[in-house]
Amino acid sequence: MQSSRQGSIHLFRIAGIDLFLHWSWFLVAAYEIQIGRGRYTSLTWNVLEYLALFLIVLLHEFGHALACRQVGGTANQIMLWPLGGVAYVNPPQRPGATLWSIAAGPLVNVALLPLLIGALIMARAMGLPAAMPNVYTLVRSVLWIDVGLLAFNILPIYPLDGGQMLRSLLWFVLGRARSLMAATVLGLVGIVGFIGIALWLRSVWWGVIALFMLMNCWAGLRHARELLVFARIPRRQGFACPSCRTSPPLGPYWTCGQCEQPFDAFETGAICPRCAARHPMTTCLDCREQFPMNEWVVDAYARHSGGLLTR
Questions:
Q1: Mean pLDDT for the stretch of residues 24-33
Q2: C-alpha to C-alpha distances, 27 to 20, 171, 213, nearest whole angstrom
Q3: Cα separation of 22 and 177, whole Å?
Q4: At CA 30, angle to CA 26 and CA 32, rounded to 5?
Q5: 235: nearest Cα among 308, 181, 284
Q6: Residue pLDDT, tens place only, 258-311
Q7: Buried-most residue among 12, 28, 206, 210 (CB within 10 A)?
Q8: What is the pLDDT of residues 136-187, one digit of tens each?
Q9: Residue 182 and residue 177: Cα distance in Å, rounded?
Q10: Contact, 246 vs 236, CB < 8 A?
């Protein structure tokens, strides 16, 4: 996923991951804090509750990022904004790696549940509902925030985590392109339900969420169609990507980094037929990873050489 830092504030960098906060977060935070005034005796507690929401979303996104790194992917940026958070992760294009990178976010919420339930039980045992009602209400609210985020995220509606996990599971059976197509079609059905909820409740907020999901789901559907077209291209035998194990396509789908001549890397041994430039790395058009040509070889007759850029 491509990232965008426009209109965002860089907060800090931890474990090689940069955290950005979109400016609109402050506007929504102020609105949410104001409408929740009646739950506490002081506005300070409303602020603490919203900061707890911020922390839970942040932990959720770090779950995605760290899991992606664990399976060999890249993840170096998280953006927090009014609709939640986005971890810009790029796991290896394998169903298992993608599934773990997505599932780790909701699993963080699952891991928080026993801690928050235990805190609520302890608060009741200590008599906090009567002695310190603000503290008790805060603990209970944070628990329900975690439960709500978990329940929402695991809905099997693309692009929510649940929809992307469903896509990863279907990937094992249907393949990369068809699994994305199936997940996005199901996602569109679910988004119709979200639009119905927005109209029924007359809620602008639910409408914004539905619109955001629709845009992402439609982009996923278009990408699935592109993958289906690409999957029909004949593949070259004797070579396979060391990362995703997919054979490269037959045809001039690579571009020389020096003269910009399109050519078939595996036909010429990663040497440009126009300028004779030898490229040390060859990019997989399926997973975008780069490897030396000799690492692609799976048959003895295949040739060795360098690599190149893709177009």
A1: 80
A2: 16, 39, 21
A3: 32
A4: 115
A5: 284
A6: 899 999 999 899 999 999 999 999 998 887 788 998 899 885 444 443 444 433
A7: 210
A8: 999 999 999 999 999 999 999 999 999 999 999 999 999 889 999 999 999 9
A9: 9
A10: no
pTM: 0.81
* Backbone φ and ψ of 136, nearest 5°: -65, -45
Residue 264 exposed, middle or buried by CB count within 10 Å (0-12, 13-18, 19+):
middle
φ, ψ at 239 (rounded to 5°): -135, 150
> Is omega for the bond preceding 159 within 30 degrees of 0, making it cis?
yes
Structure tokens at 11: 């907060």
Q: Within a 10 A sphere around the Cβ of 161, how many other Cβ atoms?
A: 24
Domain ranges of the chain: 155-232, 235-311
Peptide bond into 133 cis (omega under 30): no
Cα angle vertex 30, ends 28, 34, to 5°? 115
Of 277, 284, 304, nearest to 293 by C-alpha is: 304
Nearest CA to 285 among 256, 243, 237, 257?
Answer: 243
Q: pLDDT tens digit string along 70-115?
A: 998 889 999 988 778 888 998 988 899 999 999 999 999 999 999 9
Provide CB contacts within 8 A for 108, sequence distance 6+. Answer: 59, 60, 62, 63
